[in-house]
Design brief:
This is Riboflavin synthase. With 214 residues, the protein is mainly β. The protein folds into 2 domains: 79 residues, Elongation Factor Tu (Ef-tu), domain 3, CATH 2.40.30; 92 residues, Elongation Factor Tu (Ef-tu), domain 3. The strands form 2 sheets. A 6-stranded antiparallel beta barrel has the order 1-2-5-4-3-6. A 6-stranded antiparallel beta barrel has the order 7-8-11-10-9-12. The longest helix is centred in the last third of the chain and has 15 residues.
Length: 214
């Protein structure tokens, strides 16, 4: 589990294709590697990856083809900056929200609207995720925990403060750039738990609404 509070802006130092369509990536991150060991989890742009090697401030992670296809990691090149966060420790403060590091879909920057104290950034929202995103709810963008300011059928907006613009990759994203999206896991659990009751055993929805509670 993660919190969506970025600890460090790292850098991709190598991308090595391996068997099939997977790859080994090397990421420079002196802070997150300061106590990293083989098998630890580190989120890279919101994707939970397992450390397979650590040396001289660089950790290596094995990225499966499935991950490369279903996230924006496949578009990364050597020299690209990435948001890094170590797995949350029990007993630490939860500064953002509960983040799994499991990307639900890939969005893209639609527009940027600078203001005096912040910047409003709009992102494309995949249709399959729209039901999980609500105004004032939480969403993770490239690993950054953010509050949804506005939401539509196929887009949403967030407000980025100067700290977020400076200390994460979101400050340098251009229109059209892809981003990893993870919706609030609580919304998905609620949908699953209520699904059978709302549908009903006969598929009509009547049984769950009018029937007794076991």
């Amino acid at each position: 589990m993660f919190t969506g509070i970025i600890e460090e802006l790292g850098e991709i130092v190598r991308v090595t294709p391996t068997a099939g369509d997977s790859a080994l990536i090397g990421v420079r991150g002196p802070l997150v590697t300061s106590d990293a060991r083989h098998g630890d989890s580190i989120a890279v742009n919101g994707v939970c990856l397992t450390v397979v090697d650590v040396a001289d401030g660089v950790f290596t992670a094995d990225v499966m083809g499935e991950t490369l296809r279903r996230s924006a990691l496949g578009a990364l090149s050597v020299g690209d900056p990435v948001n890094l966060e170590r797995a949350a420790a029990l007993g630490s403060r939860l500064g953002g929200h509960l983040v799994q590091g499991h990307v639900d879909g890939v969005g893209a920057v639609l527009s940027r609207e600078p203001a005096e104290q912040w910047e409003t950034v709009r992102f494309r929202l995949p249709a399959a995720l729209s039901r999980y995103v609500v105004e004032k709810g939480s969403i993770t963008i490239d690993g950054v925990s953010l509050t949804v300011a506005e939401v539509g059928a196929d887009e949403f907006a967030v407000g980025l403060i100067p700290t977020t613009l400076k200390l994460t990759t979101l400050g340098a994203k251009s229109v059209g750039d892809p981003v990893n999206l993870e919706v609030d896991v609580l919304a998905k659990y609620v949908e699953r738990l209520l699904g059978d009751r709302l549908t009903g055993t006969d598929g009509t929805g009547v049984a769950s609404i009018t029937g007794g509670v076991a």
